[in-house]
Structures are given as C-alpha cells and as structure tokens.
Fold this protein.
Amino acid sequence: MKFVIYFLLVVIPSLSVAAPSLEEVANSQKWQRLLHIKKSLFGHQSEIKDPRFYISPEGMSDPLKELKADVELWTKDPNQQCRFPARSRYLRNMGLVPEVICAEREAWKKRLGADKISLIFASAYLNNPASMFGHTFLKLHTQNNGADRDLMNYGVNFAASTGSDGGIPFAFKGLFGFYPGNFSMMPYHQRLLDYSSLEGREIWEYEINLTPEQVDELVEHLMELDSIQTSYYFFDRNCSYQLLSLFEVVRPDLNLTDEYVYHVIPADTIQQVTDIPGLVRSSRYRPSLRARFESRQLNAPEEAQTLALNWRDKIEKSNELPVAEISSFSKADTRAQALDILLDYGAIRAYQDSGSVWAEKEFELKGLRASSGITAVDAPIHEPIPVEKGHASARIGLEGRIGPQDQRGLFLNFRPAYHDLYSSDEGYLRGSQIRFLELSAGGKESSNIKLDSFTLLDIVSLSPINSYFTPTSWRLNLSSDHLFSASKDFYHGSVGGGVSFSGDKWLAGAFLETQWSQLEGEASAGSLSFGPSVIVRLNLSHHLRALADLKILWPTRNDVLENYKHFEGGFSYSLGKNDELRLTYKKLLEQDEHESIYYLHYF
Amino acid sequence: MKSLLAILTIIGAASVASAGDAGCGLGSMILKSNTKLQQVLAATTNGTFGSQTFGITSGTSNCSASAIVMNDKEIQYFAEANQTDLTREMAQGNGEKLSTLAALYGCNGQQKANFAKMTQASYNKIVDHKNISATQMVQNLNTQVAASNVCVASNN
C-alpha cells in the first residue's frame, strides 16, 4: 500500500513534469497550424509569405528555427510576446516562455467581446455565373448583442488588395498570386454592404461550434495575422481557404484544408463544414435586396403591381416623378404598396447607375412614401435552397454510348467544376452553367482509348427578363469534339448574346452567336460562322429534367463546315444529391450523331 | 427598461460627438454604385473595392478606435454607412436597419415599432433636405427621439 501511495505521489508527477523538447513542440500539430505550415515536397513550408510573421529570418521554412528564435526573444523580453498572442500562449502553456500580461491586447479583446463565430456565405443572384462560386467571410459575435443588434457585430474578411487593376492584368495577377491578401475587420453591416451593394447577394450564416476559449484563441490568432500579407490566389489560397486554416488552429480535431489540392471553391467549404457532424450549430438566411424586391412585387395585390409598373414606366420615360398623380391617388394602401415596390426597385437601379433618375429623385420619392403614413409590411421571404443541399462541385462519370452501332463504347467523363443545365439546380444559380476542364475519353475497345471531347470552358448565363429588368443573357464555349465520321477533332470557340424567358418550370434562352471553328489537320486558319441558338430547360418533376440546345450557323465562306448544325438534348434524372442518370442525343455538324446513357457521380 | 435620462444620455453623447465634426469619414469607403466592370470584377473575384482596410485592429474612421466603433459613435457610424437604406426604411416605417437603429437608441421590443412609425411621421423633419449629410440627419433624429419619448418605458 505504501508503495502504491509513493508511486502515485512521487513517480507519476515527476514523469509528467519533464517539459517537451523543442523538437517535439516544433513538430506538434499545434505549432505547425499556428505557423500555417503545409508539409510539401520542399519540407515544411509556411503558407504565410510575409517575413513579418516570423522572428527568425528562416522561420518561413524552418519551424524549429522559428521556435528557438521565439523562445529566445520572449525569454529575454517577455513583452514581445504581445505581438503574437496565440503563438506565445501556446508556448507559455508548454512552459517554454515566462508568463506575461498584455494589457492593451486584453483590453482590445474585451471591447470586441467575441463569444461566437459564424461562417458567412455570400452567393450571387446576378447575371454572372462566375460569382456562383460565392464568397465566405466570418462574423464575430459580440457577447450581449441580441438579434436586434446583429448588424453591429464584426465581419472579418480575407481579400486581395487589387488596386484599380482590371481585365487581363487583374486576371493574371489574381490567378498567379501576385496580389497580396490580408485579413481585415469592420462592422458586419458595413461588410454586408460590400455584397449587397451589388444588390444581389444572398447571405447564409453558419454558426460554428466553438467554445468561448476557442473563439478567444481564434481572435488572438487574427491579431497576430493583423496586417500580415500573403499571396492571394483566386483558385486555391483564397478567401475560403484562409478561413478554414483559422478553424484548424483552434480545433485540433478538424482537418479541413488537406483535401483541397488545386482549387478551393467557397461553396465547397460550406458543404464541407455542414457535412461534419456537430460543427455547425445553426444557420440563418438573409435575403438580398433583389430577393426582397421580387418577393414584394410578386406578392403585392394586383392593383398595386399594375400601379407600380405604370408609375415606373412614366418615371423612366420622362425622368420626372409624377408627383401630383402619385399624391392624389385615392387608395392610400395601394399607393403605399406601389411606392414600396418602386423604392426597392429604385434602390437597385440607383446602385447600378448613380446617374439614373432613381438616384436623382430618391429624396422626393421617399418623401412621397413617408407622407402616406402607412407602415410597410415585410414581404414573405422564400429561402432558396442553400448551397450545402446542392451537388458537389467535381464530377466523374461513365458514358455508355448506345448508338449508332459503330460508335458503341464506354467513355469516362471527368470534370473538376462546376455545374451544367441538365443537373438539378438546387443550391445553384438558376439558369447558369459553368463547365470547366471537362474531359471525356474512351472507345469501343480498351486498346483504342481516344479523347472524345474536351471542354476548356463552357458558360451559359440565362437571366430571364421580367417586367422590371431586362438583363442580357450570354454564353461562351471553348471545346473540341471528336468527329467519328471524319476521324478528326473539331475545335470550336463561340460566344453569343441574347435574351431569356422563364416560367415556374421552364427556362428558355435565344442567342445570336459567333463561332470560330477548325478541323484538325486543316491548313487554313479556321472559319467564322454566325447564327442563332436556342436553349430550353424543363423541370418535368422534382427529380427529372429535360434540356435541348440547338445551334444553326452559317459560315462566312464555303468550306467543310457549311451549314453547321449542332443539337444536343436529353433527360436527366437525380438519384440523390450527388448521383445522376442521363439519356442524351447529340448531333455534331451533319454527319455525327450518337445516343448515350450516363451515370454521373459528384464528389 | 430605459429611463428618459438614459435616452437623453445616449442622445447627448451622440450630439456632442457629432456637433460640428465631419462625422466618421466613411464616405469614401461606402460604395454608392458600381460601374459595370466593378460589378463583374467584384462578383467574380470577391476583391473588395474601396472599403478594404488594412488589418484587424486598424480601423480607418474617426469613429473607431483600433477598428472597434466607439460606443458613443455607434449611431453616427451606423447612420453614415447605411444612410440610403435607413432613409428608405424610415419612409416605409419598417425595416431591419431601422430596427437596429432603434435598438441603438435604447428601444426595446414594441418600442422599436413605435420608433419606426415615429421616423416615418417625422420624416420631413429628419431628412429635411436633399443630399442631407448623415451627421445632420443624426442630429435631426436626436431631436425627434427626444421630443417623442419613443424609447422610454411608460409603465412596464
């Protein structure tokens, strides 16, 4: 018995008192995550490329050297720890550096008073399918801010400082990491203005399951990243990636960033966190001004709808407000409802164009509305299907070509991103298609595998017109298809503009297109063709859709590609969120056609 | 429940702070409209235009200390950033930003709806001329809130 007591009181504590070695700490998951280190072929490389984030000149590539430099400095001058609150806290916990009180830091944290953190997803509504990828940022909730002070919380964003660049320099610099990115903080309401200033972004908030201590530590880590700049890459080290690495610092149990190799799509990160059991406590939807306007307009009594359109037309034709007509309209309720529609519409127009009559006459219009004295009713909000309920962004599939006889075979289809019009659009922007790097290869026999088609980029933006907005629809396609009949590849690049219409269960777009085409092996520089195209998409049921896409082009000179006709159509059936069956018919030029069945899996 | 004294304190602080000064200086940071190119670029790349501050603790306004808005500047800051939406909601007598503003003035529960109605009824005293500055608008608002006692508990 004495021996047992001796063992418990002396031996065991003395075993645990030995401080971890510096090597152990340098290799610990915590240290690596605090330094944003990713193991690669080149060893331990930190992803934060700002030398100010390190005390050792070799800190960026050597976590042990950095640790030694930190320990040495902070032992000699403990107050220096205050520059790196999260990192130094870890070392204090390991017993490697002395205790210190950072009064200023603590005071700032107290004023911020963050107790909860939400991941915010901003999607897009507008006529821009590229913005389907969305954007993510953080909301830091201040303790005691109730629901009516939610807008007073703070938003933290990782973004690139792009200056006034545009066009090609912008795209090039962004893709290849030539812009510096950094974290910044501002009031949540102001952060939201960045996205709602386009009057189109739907917002979803996802409260992340973190303890108050973890929230505190994340805030401390943000403080040590304050004004630190690191390269911003549109594809991979972007806004969403950086936020995930913040969560990894305070939640050692989570592995969020490892699975992203070449690209990080913001919407994917939302799918990811909502898939992890218990990581998201709750979520909330904030409609954009555009969504609220549409709801208000569609749900208003018919008389108010007609009146609003009437006044809208008068205002836009004359650039004046028909003040007398508006104020003398007898039914106060209807007048107020019509003005509410026009105020929302006018706000959207004014954002789009600060010179428009809606910006000019804003003061008068609001005055007219106020004098009605009737309280506006909140229009019913219909929450769109959130992104996490949609299919995943990458896709792999098997195509069984069933006809004609001589083309029968099996093809493998792969696409890293993103979404096409056959699929269910739950969680996606209605009417938008982005196909990026889609590849199909296969053949009749396994000894004869050929590239069948390759799509570099295929974007379709069907933005239906309505009584208030007449956006342009457009499409763009850069692809190559194998022509069975000619045993040659057919390269084409096309761009088109047009108009779209929609109903409850259908979408249709009509375009005028220009196309450059070239047959493999031709000596000439290719040919230019012009003509119309039409796309129609039908929702036949919750799981079943039909799509048809017809293009007829006339060449500018007579050559192989006279009278170009291209038709593709078929049915798509969703087996679940991430699985789909398709039956398609394709006709390329006059000679090539085939029917196929696809099984597609999203991941 | 807030007493009249507490409300007057909030208003007093806001008035002293904003009297004669240029407000929070957010003007250049708030986008009022976008060119088509800015819209497309911002949507595709999430690059923020004009309002990117350069850190976590470095706010760039007269109303924040190290990026955190000072308590007595909350109303001014909120009004400046959201003036367009606030005036619209005041004209309509309803809205989330208006409700937030009411909360900043110390209104609770049903008082917030009363606040909203009050701003609509006194709209032309609050937004009394075209292109009114946010500072001026807040001063007018302070006057109306004090005069109407709208955020004061009666017998709760």
Remarks:
- Chain A touches chain B through 69 residues (CB under 8 Å).
- Chain A has 17 helices and 22 strands.
- The radius of gyration of chain A is 29 Å.
